[in-house]
Model the fold of this input.
Amino acid sequence: MAVQISPSILSADFARLADEAAVVAAVADWLHVDVMDNHFVPNLTIGLPVVESLLKHTTLPLDCHLMIEEPDRWAPEYAEAGARNVTIHAEAAHAPVRTLRAIRAAGARAGLAVNPGTAVEPYEDLLTEIDMLLLMTVEPGFGGQHFLDIVLPKLRRARSQVAGLGTAIWLQVDGGVDLETIERCAEAGADVFVAGSAVYHSDDPARAVQALRAQAEHATAHAAWAAHTPPGRPG
Ligand code: DX5
Ligand code: ZN
Done:
């Protein structure tokens, strides 16, 4: 099971997004783009026009995390624009099956996110509709928050739920992921790691990505779940 690192540009310089993407392009697997609408979360970031521009200026696949009230309306457009992954929040979607299918039909991977206090079980029937499950490890809205380890048991359960399905669903964690917490996430079952401040607030973002990957790979090599999981389907 390959470790993937998705640096979040929420902690980058928004006036220099293309340069900030380029800094990690050789070492990261994805570029994580946090779309916030000041309704689903109490913060406002960027939307479709900026994503469309960014797509022209980076070779990294975009991992769009929609923290917005109307994902059913907007998510397919991100996929059509060229985002390689589009993640919607379970708490916000009114027609998740239709929306997840529209994301896939547009050629992107479909992700479903849950907040720290949201259980995965009520959404279990959606697992066949998704390529990635995002377990938020902070309350969404801001970078630089403290990692919530109450999510770790849910992550362990999610890993066995997806293993039971026999399909290759990636498990992503987002929020407070750093050199210390990434180890615990990998051990508990995560394989895709978002990191904002741990990457962009470091003196050398590319080296930070490499260090996070090394730490996660080390922890995964010792994790019981990884020994029983078939390799994922390629992105
Ligand atoms: C928070 C965002 C995260 C954020 C993580 O709501 O979804 O992607 O950038 O930032 P750090 O890694 O600093 O917690
Ligand atoms: Zn995010």
